[in-house]
Amino acid sequence: MRLSKIFNISRISNIFNKAKVKERNQNLAERRLKTLAKLPMKELIEKFDITFNKATKDPIGLSTAQVNQKFKRYGSNEITLTNKQTTLTRIIEALVNPFNIILFIIAIVSYFADYFSDEEISWITIFMILAMILASSIVSFVQSERSSRAAAKLASLVNNTASVFRRGGLQELPLAELVPGDIVRLSAGDMIPADVRFLSTKDTFVAQAALTGESMPVEKFAHTRHEHGSSLTDLKNLGFMGTNIISGSATAVILATGNNTYFGAMAETLSGKTGKNSFERGVTNVSRLLITMVIIMVPLVFLLNGFLKADWTASLLFAVSVAVGLTPEMLPVIMTATLATGAVRMSKHQVIVKQLGAIQTFGEMDILATDKTGTLTEDKIILEEYLDVDGKSDARVLEYAYLNAYFQTGLKGLLDVAVINRAEKNGLSSLITKYTVVDEIPFDFTRRRLSVVLESKDRTRTLITKGAVEEMLEVCSQVKLEGKIHPLTSDHRKIAMKTYEKYNNQGLRVIALAEKPLRSFRAGKFGVKDENDLTLTGFVCFLDPPKESARAAVSDLKASGIKVVVMTGDSLGVASYVCDHVGISPDCALSGQEVSAMEDDALKSAAKNCQLFYKLSPAEKERLVRVLQESGHTVGYMGDGINDAPPLHQADVGISVDTAVDIAKETSEIILLKKDLGVLGEGVIEGRRTFGNVSKYIKLAVSGNFGNMFSVLFASIMLPFLPMLPIQILTQNLLADFSVLGLPFDNVDKEYLKKPRKWSPRSITTFMVFAGVTSSIFDILCFGVLWFIFGFHTPETIPLFWAGWFIFGVLSQVLIIHVARTGKVPFLQSRPSIPLLVSTLSIAAIALFIAFTPFSDAINMGTLPVIFILPLIVLLAGYFFAVQFVKVFYKRLFNEWI
C-alpha cells in the first residue's frame, strides 16, 4: 500500500462517504428501473417515442440527431470506475512511490545534516538525488503509458457488438455507442448490452449468474405482472447489463447505459480483485522476501556502522541507502513492460491478450481442452446427405430440415445455414411462403433438441423437431418408411441406429428429423411436454472435414509439452474420426454419461490417459476442466459457443475467437483472430518467452540483493569507514536499474521454450543462494585488491576505495545480466537482443566515465587511476568464469538455470 494512503487520516471518513454514495446510487438505479418495469406497454412506447414500420412491424429506431443528443447527455455505454487509470493518475503513481519517497527523505536529511553541521550544503548531492527521482519517474511513466496504449490498442481489435434498430435499418454497432431509447434485437449467445425492458420475447432464457449467482437461466417475458416486494432481478420483463441470452430471441428498449445501469451502480463491488494466479502469487512472495531482507538489514547496518564508525548521521543515511539498494524498484516497470511487449508480439501472431496477466498462464499451460469444430475441422459445414431411416435419399427430409432451420428464431448455427443454403439451391425457397410460425421450443443442452410449430395455409399445424439421434429416438413412437407410418419397433430402431452409425463412422455429423401433426388449436404456448409420440422421418448428414493444418499443429503442441484434449458435445463416431485424422488418440474415450457417473477421484484417474470426451453438456465440460486442474495441470480451454462459457470461466486461461458469441469472448482472456491451433501454438511460445524474461529479472534482483546484503555486512564489520556513501549507492543502484531496461525485449533460448514453465519459489531460492554467494565472494576480493594492492584505506584515498567498489559493482551487475540470462555460454552460444546490449553497454560506459574522470567528484568519489583497469578486468573475468562454473554445476544438480 502506498505511503500516501497510509498517512491520509481523512481516508477513513472518505470510505464511509463513498459507501453511502454507492448505496444511494444503487438504490436510485433500482427505483428507476422498477418504475419503468411497471409502466404499461403503451406508456413505455410513448415515453421512449418508439415507432414501428407499418409494413415490416419492425421498430424504426432513433435518428442520428437523437442519438447524438442522448450520447452527449448520457455518455458512452461503458462502466467507468473511480479508480480508472488515466494519464494523470499514471504520472502521480510514477512520482509518488516508496522509492521516490525514500530518495526525497534522503535529500531532506542530507540538506539538514549539512545545515546543522555548519558545513557547506552539498547542492550537487541534493540535485543528483532529485535528478534520480525525476529519471526513475520518467521511465516508470513512459513504460506505464506505453503498456496502457498497447493494451488499449489490442483490446480495440476485439469488440462485442449489438444489433440495433436505427433510422437506417438494423445495424451492428459497438456496445459503447448504444444510448437509452435504442431498440436492440437479441438472440442466443448475445450479451445484454445495457439495462433493457423487453418489447417482445420468444422463449427467451437469460443467465443472470453475474448478478444473482443463480446457475439456472430465467425466462423473460414482454408482458408480466409484478408481485409486491419482488426484487429487481426477479422482474421478468427486465434484462440487465452483464447477463446473457441462453436461448430464444427478443427485442428490447434500452432503459439505462454505462454507470447508470444496475451493474454500473454496483460495479465497484462486482469488479473486486480476482484471485491471483501462480505467477502473481510468486511475485508477491518474492516481494515479501525482499522486504524482509530490508527490514532485517536496515537496523543491522545502521547499528553496526553507528557503533563501529561512531558517526550515527552518516550511518543512518548509509542504512537507508542500502535499503533502497535492496529494493527492486524496477520490478513493476520491468514486469509491465515485459508483459506489454509479449502482448504486442502475440498480436503479430493473431493472438490478442485481453488481460496482460494471462500471458504467463498461457505459457504455463500443459493441457489444452478444445471443441473439435473449427479448431480441428475446417468449420465449413456442408450438407452431404438427407436420408430416410433406411438410408435412402429422401427430399421430404430436406424439406422438414429447411422448415425447422428457417423458422427457428434463435441463433442460427452452421448446420442451419448449411441446410438453408442446400434447400434454396434445390429450389425450395417457395416452401416457406406456405407456412407461418406459431411457436418454438428452443434448444437446450439437456434435451439436445429444437422444435418449431408451423401452421399451413389450410390451418393445419405441424410440430417439426430436430436433434441428436439417440435423444430423438427417446421421444419417437412411430417411423415413416416409404411414405407410410409404422409403429417404432425394436427392429426399426436397430435399422435407424445402423444407418446413423454407418454415416457417423464416416465422419459425418448426423441429425435426426421428426414431425407430429397437431390437430387441436389450444390456447397457450407449446413446451417440452409436446415433444412426444413423434414420427421419425429421417436424417440429415453434415461434413466438416478435418483441417489440413491440424495434425501439424497438434504435433507442435505435443512437442511443446502440451497435451490436447477434445471435449465435444458431438457423438463418438464423428469425434473419433476427426481425432484419428489429426493425431489425437481416440482409443480412450469417455461419454458425458460416464463422466457424470464417476466420482472425482475415479475421473481424475480415468482422465490421465483420455484425450477424447464426447456428448458432454456444459456442466460436464466445466467439471472435467476442474478435475484436470485438481490433478496439478494448468488447463487452457478453447471454445466459441454458448455452451463453452462455463468451462471457459473455470479454466486457468480461457481462449476464444473473434467470431465467437459475445459471452464466450467476454469470458475469455485470450482471443484468436484466426481459429487455428497453429496460431495458438505460436502464442504459447510468446507466452513462455515473456515469462522467461520476467523470470530473469526476478532471479537477478533477488540474487543480487542477497549478495549485496552479505557484502555490505562484511564491509560494515571489517572496514573502519563506510564502504560507500549514500549518494554513491543510490547512483550505482540507479545505473543497475537502467541496465536491465532491455530485458523485456531479450531473446530466450529455444530449449527454454520447449516445455511449460511454472512458477517455482524453490528455484528462486536456490538461484539466490548460489548466484548471491558468488557475487559476494568477488565483492570481498575487490575489497582486498583495493585495500592491500592499491592501499586505498588512508583518509586521503578512501574516495578512491569508494570509486573502485562503485565501478566493480556496476560492471559486475552488467556482466551478470549477460551470464545469467542464458543457460548457455553467453555471446557465443546465446546472443542477447539489441535493446539489452544497448542498455547494458551504455550503462557500463557511463559508469566508466564517472569513475575514471573528474566527474566522480560530483558524487564525492576519487578519480581512479588508469592502471586500475587491469585488476578490474581480472576481477570481472574471474567473476565471469566463476558464474559459468556455478551455472554448469547448478544445471547438473537441478536440471535448470533460469
Please tell me about this protein's structure.
This protein has 898 residues and is of the alpha/beta class. The protein folds into four domains: 47-74 and 161-270, Calcium-transporting ATPase, cytoplasmic transduction domain A, CATH 2.70.150.10; 89-150 and 282-346 and 684-894, Calcium-transporting ATPase, transmembrane domain (Up-down Bundle), CATH 1.20.1110.10; 351-377 and 547-673, HAD superfamily/HAD-like (Rossmann fold, 3-Layer(aba) Sandwich), CATH 3.40.50.1000; 382-543, 3-Layer(aba) Sandwich (Calcium-transporting ATPase, cytoplasmic domain N), CATH 3.40.1110.10. It has 31 helices and 23 strands. α26 (677-718) runs parallel beside α28. The longest helix is centred in the C-terminal third of the chain and has 42 residues, at 677-718. Residues 1-21 and 268-275 have low confidence and may be disordered.
Portion in strands: 15-25%
Q: What is the terminal-to-terminal distance?
A: 30 Å
Poorly predicted segments: 1-21, 268-275
> What is the count of DSSP helices, taking H or I runs of 4+ residues?
31
Major beta-sheet overview: 8 strands, mixed
- CATH architecture label of the largest domain: Up-down Bundle
CATH superfamily of the largest domain: Calcium-transporting ATPase, transmembrane domain
Count of discrete structural domains: 4
**CATH class descriptor of the largest domain:** Mainly Alpha
- Give me the side-by-side strand order of the main sheet: 8-23-22-21-9-18-20-19
**Overall shape:** elongated
What is the third-level CATH name, the topology of the largest domain? Calcium-transporting ATPase, transmembrane domain
Radius of gyration, whole Å: 34 Å
Compute the number of strand runs.
23
